[in-house]
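In the design runs reported in the main text, the only information available to the sequence generator was the tokenized backbone. The following block is the verbatim input for one such run; it is reproduced so that readers can re-run the procedure and compare outputs position by position.
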């Protein structure tokens, strides 16, 4: 019998979570890190494997299967997830440390944080691997449980309210998605044996207005998850109140379920409705780009600033998805990976800074570069990746998105370019206000030591990967292009052909 690699990949962190919960004392963190590293090894192995599909009949009455698969897009997001979790566990080795200048509040121990992070990793991996719609929905909703407790258990004084807001928005999106799942079941059972396998639902004949209403249900759920304007307001609150490691997992991996779902389900199940909704979705995407960027420029809190930059970047991803070209879709898939790395680096380095100073307010800093030069350099590097500086992975994604969308949607691309200009503004202004100028008395009092060996161990792999994928994007892009080409075939879209002047050869 063939080894069920995908099942193993999803279950290892869940088993690790159970072991850590059952353990007592400090050793639980080492156990959690060991399981996360084993999961990372399995994830890297899966990335290079082929023919990984697994199918077992689950609920025959409704046509549900325990079915897992991993195409190019799923493999990239699996790789992102398994890389980030062990780094976050090391970064948050002692969440709620009473010796921290930030004096973070905590309800539970660091072992509980590690166990919940592993549980979140397991459910997220099953989301990316599920090839049955019901299984996807169950994993989609299950991710809310550990994420809620990660926000509510550690962080700022208003973390309980932020966690509840996250949960209410996510549950509302999940209920809308449930309506869509039930609708797809009804359609699949109308004239045939019902099936919830995504492969069998793709290309299923659906009436025009039925398809459009179901598209709206799926799209709204994924827009909340992504998040997009105007269903985004839960993210800044959650990012501000949660621990930086929890925020990194939330934005870098969990929120990618939104853009993943738009490609995997919206385009595949509802090609006509996707083309019908494209003008409206592109408008929302550009609004998200500009709104997120403007809010980041005006943000007074570093953690909220990073969250608003992510809203802007998710707008770029959605723009690339619904521009409906191979280049823009490839760019969006690649950008999911790139943004995951850069946003995680930003949240974690800001977290290290806040731990020292005891505040995330930009006004409480000044001249920090003189006191913590390595931390300042890492912040600037992660910030330059965020603004898509050439040579970083984000640049590759943004360039492909805008180049691919240019021929079909010139006006929207021109407006989106303003988002890249504003990105330079919010990153450089934040760096200037926090790290340059005279040293403030508060910074001189609190910022006594630069990044230590543990913190460098966390940040170094992220910076290396951001630069590696920026300078050597081709192998990863080839993986993304396979999914993009398949999505283009499913939706029946074609790339614009270059114009050739009359009389030329």
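Verbatim output:
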């Amino acid at each position: 019998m063939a080894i069920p690699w995908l099942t193993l990949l999803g279950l290892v962190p869940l088993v690790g979570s159970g072991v850590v919960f059952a353990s007592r004392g400090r050793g639980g963190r080492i156990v959690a890190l060991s399981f996360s590293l084993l999961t990372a090894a399995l994830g890297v192995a899966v990335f290079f494997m082929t023919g990984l599909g697994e199918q077992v009949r689950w609920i025959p009455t409704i046509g549900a299967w325990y079915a897992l698969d991993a195409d190019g897009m799923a493999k990239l997001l699996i790789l992102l997830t398994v890389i980030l979790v062990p780094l976050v566990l090391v970064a948050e080795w002692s969440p709620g440390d009473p010796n921290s200048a930030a004096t973070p509040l905590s309800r539970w121990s660091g072992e509980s944080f590690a166990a919940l992070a592993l549980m979140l990793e397991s459910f997220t991996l099953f989301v990316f691997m599920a090839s049955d719609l019901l299984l996807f929905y169950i994993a989609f909703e299950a991710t809310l449980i550990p994420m809620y407790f990660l926000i509510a258990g550690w962080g700022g004084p208003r973390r309980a309210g932020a966690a509840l807001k996250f949960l209410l928005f996510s549950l509302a999106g999940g209920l809308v998605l449930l309506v869509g799942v039930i609708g797809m079941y009804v359609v699949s059972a109308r004239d045939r044996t019902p099936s919830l396998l995504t492969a069998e639902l793709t290309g299923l004949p659906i009436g025009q207005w039925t398809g459009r209403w179901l598209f709206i249900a799926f799209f709204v759920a994924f827009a909340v998850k992504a998040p997009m304007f105007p269903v985004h307001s839960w993210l800044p609150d959650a990012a501000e109140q949660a621990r930086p490691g929890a925020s990194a997992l939330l934005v870098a991996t969990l929120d990618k379920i939104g853009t993943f779902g738009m490609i995997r389900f919206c385009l595949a199940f509802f090609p006509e409705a996707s083309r019908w909704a494209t003008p409206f979705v592109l408008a929302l995407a550009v609004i998200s780009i500009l709104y997120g960027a403007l809010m980041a420029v005006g943000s007074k809190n570093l953690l909220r600033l990073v969250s608003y930059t992510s809203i802007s970047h998710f707008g770029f991803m959605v723009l690339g998805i619904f521009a409906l070209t191979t280049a823009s879709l490839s760019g969006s898939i690649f950008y999911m990976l790139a943004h995951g790395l850069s946003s995680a680096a930003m949240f974690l380095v800001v977290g290290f800074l806040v731990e020292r100073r005891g505040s995330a307010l930009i006004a409480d800093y000044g001249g920090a570069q003189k006191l913590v030069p390595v931390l300042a350099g890492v912040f600037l590097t992660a910030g330059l990746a965020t603004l898509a500086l050439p040579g970083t992975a984000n640049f590759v994604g943004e360039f492909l998105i805008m180049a691919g969308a240019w021929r079909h949607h010139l006006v929207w691309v021109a407006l989106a370019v303003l988002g890249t200009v504003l990105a330079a503004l919010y990153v450089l202004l934040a760096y200037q206000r926090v790290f340059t100028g005279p040293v403030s008395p508060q910074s001189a009092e609190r910022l006594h030591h630069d990044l230590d060996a543990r913190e460098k161990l966390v940040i170094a792999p992220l910076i290396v990967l951001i630069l590696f994928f920026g300078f050597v994007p081709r192998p990863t892009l080839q993986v993304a292009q396979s999914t993009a080409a398949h999505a283009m075939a499913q939706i029946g879209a074609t790339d614009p052909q270059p114009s050739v002047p009359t009389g030329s050869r």
